[in-house]
Amino acid sequence: MTGTLTAGFGEPVLDAQRCFRAVLDAMSRPGRVQRLAGLSPPLAPPAPLGAAAAAVLLTLSDADTPVWLDAGAAAEAWLRFHAGAPIVAAPAEAAFLLASGPPPALRDLAQGTDEEPHRSATLILEVAALEEGDGWRLTGPGIEHAHWLRVTGLPEGFAAAWQGNRARFPCGIDLLLCAGDRLAALPRTTALEIG
Amino acid sequence: MAYVAVKGGEAAIDAAHAWLAEERRGDPALPELTVEQIGQQLGLAVDRVMAEGACHDRGLAALAIKQARGDLIEAAFLLRAYRTTLPRFAGSEPLDTGAMRIRRRISATYKDLPGGQVLGPTFDYTHRLLDFALAAAGEPPPPAPQAAAEAASMPRVTGILAQEGLMQAEAASDAPPPDLTREPLAFPAERPLRLQALARGDEGFLLALGYSTQRGYGNAHPFVGEIRMGEVAVEITPPELGFAIEIGDLTVTECQMVNQFAGSKTEPPQFTRGYGLVFGHAERKAMAMALVDRALRGAELGEEADAPAQSQEFVLYHCDNVEATGFVEHLKLPHYVDFQSELEKIRQLRATALREAAE
Amino acid sequence: MSLAADAPNPAPTASAARRCWMGILARASRAEIASLLQAAPPLPAHRRLRGPETGLVMARGRQGGDGAPFNLGELTVTRCSITLDDGTVGHAYVAGRDAGQAEIAAVLDAALQDPGRQASLLAAVIEPLAAAQAARAARDAARAAATRVQFFTMATMR
């Protein structure tokens, strides 16, 4: 095997901790955009994986978390090599999903059960851009009054699918939105109104 | 159960730890034990800690023994705690104990078997007389004799019986085994799950249970078909390579316990096996494990199974000494509120009883 | 262990040879490898792709020795993957916790894939290591053979 593999985190422990902190902040303040800065050296994942999405996968997935992704063979090999995560073909079997194109339907992913709602999937969605300040009006736990988030490049009908996801609480998936080195989260508890 | 949040005691704890460190070191006029010395000269203690800690690393196990002042259960606990900090890279290909580089191999069922009876470094024929020569540091012992080794293979005794159709065959399978360290124990437990629990189980507990099957608590007629100890290669197949590679050798002890089986509606009378496989040179543990494995198969073989060693829940819930230690020793924790309520209850009952007696 | 592979087509031969030297390097201490490297041509420069990092491999046995697999217990393993300037990737997985051993084994794995370096590195490093490992195994086998029981039956025991 030559040439195709590129490095993962330069400092696996510190970089994963930084990224985990960013994901934690994003999840606990839904709609606030976090920047994944200060990785040494910056992550250079195979295309089309973005830096933030790739870092999130390296941080959260391991040999015990099946991953589904649509980013092609090079990205799969890279993830398998660095995280050891098993790659699955069926979206319903995945603990983490990365969609760089149109994502699978939210209702088809692992939803958890009433006894174990944490066994649901987390979807990492690559989008074109993330901006705070206008766009969706977000409310729910972790938001004092309302947060505003503009997401560019979402699939058609996303807002309706998200309403369906919220209705399944305490089950339902959690969503991480990534654009370049920026990321924001919509946990299953967040309500979304089109502003 | 209720616990009460208690503050304070920090200075007492610090002082206790300082005293512990001093006790651990002992008289500083004596040379300090090195981890290498423990690894080399207390090798069977290291083996036991690796087996019950379910983590093979001689250096870490020796360090754990030193830190635990020789308390082997505490040392296994330290090793278990350490392993949780490490990522799992892979599962190995199943070890091929048939290809073991043998240091010891004996059979109690056949005197003359291919490969012969190889005693290896055993205590078996020592007289159990204390050797006071060891109490004084002396010259290292002379090197052990060597003899020309035959290249002859050492087939398993179970294979010899199988050729005659007298040994129940194991179903060939490459199914990924269940893993206790990933999913909590659930019943009924399949045999692979039971064997994992037994392999990391407490030697003393399994020894007593195995002994109980011989004494009538269970329907055992065991023979040691074979015990073998030596080195086996560990192979993994990293996905980035796509072929299997050897990553080192492990010393393991394997015991095949041969048991009579009277037959059932679906199976003719034949021999069945109880199986033991343990990290390191751990013959007593491997034999006890094989006895208990066979006892636990009683129900699936249609035998009467009401002895303790035949009860899955009894054996598997209680064989882990780290878990058992946790639950027994938690009784040391403050139960001040619990006990206060017990006190009040007993006082009330007592008052009632005394009053009634007086009436 | 033989370094010559007997598989008929080139791809399995290459992986059989690689499997062989990886197994030998996994069993060699860092000090043994380093001392042999002093007499070998210098190793090429490398960059780390992954690790060296220590983790666990779950060792499996088979029930009854030949039946369904079960999990016996874990062992510590250190792995390292590196790349040379020409893009060749070297991997190492070695039992234990020696990061230095894993890294040098990964560099050797990459260098040994270069036909221009292979013969000299096999001769200077791999073959002496293999010989030392075979000698240790032979010594254990000879000591075991000395403890093999030679039965002789006495007449009265007929």
UniProtKB/TrEMBL annotation, chain A:
Q: Does the keyword Ribonucleoprotein apply?
A: no
Instruction: Check the record and name the InterPro entries matching this protein.
Output: PhnH-like_sp, Phosphonate_metab_PhnH
Q: Keyword set for this entry?
A: Lyase
GO MF annotations in UniProt? lyase activity
Tell me a GO biological process for this protein. Answer: organic phosphonate metabolic process
What Pfam family is a match for this entry? PhnH
Q: What is this protein called?
A: Phosphonate C-P lyase system protein PhnH
**Which gene underlies this protein?**
phnH
TrEMBL record, chain B:
Extract the InterPro entries matched here: PhnI (IPR008773)
Entry keywords, A to Z: Lyase
Protein's name in the database: Carbon-phosphorus lyase complex subunit PhnI
Q: Which organism is it from?
A: Dankookia rubra
**GO biological process assignments:** organic phosphonate metabolic process
| Phylogenetic placement of the source organism | Bacteria, Pseudomonadati, Pseudomonadota, Alphaproteobacteria, Acetobacterales
* One GO MF term attached to the UniProt entry: lyase activity
TrEMBL record, chain C:
This one is known as Phosphonate C-P lyase system protein PhnG
Tell me a Gene Ontology molecular-function term this record carries: lyase activity
Q: What are the UniProt keywords, alphabetically?
A: Lyase
NCBIfam families on file: PhnG_redo
| Keyword set includes Glycoprotein | no
What InterPro entries does UniProt report for this protein, alphabetically? Phosphonate_metab_PhnG
**What gene, per UniProt, encodes this protein?**
phnG
Q: Which GO terms describe its biological process?
A: organic phosphonate metabolic process; organic phosphonate transport
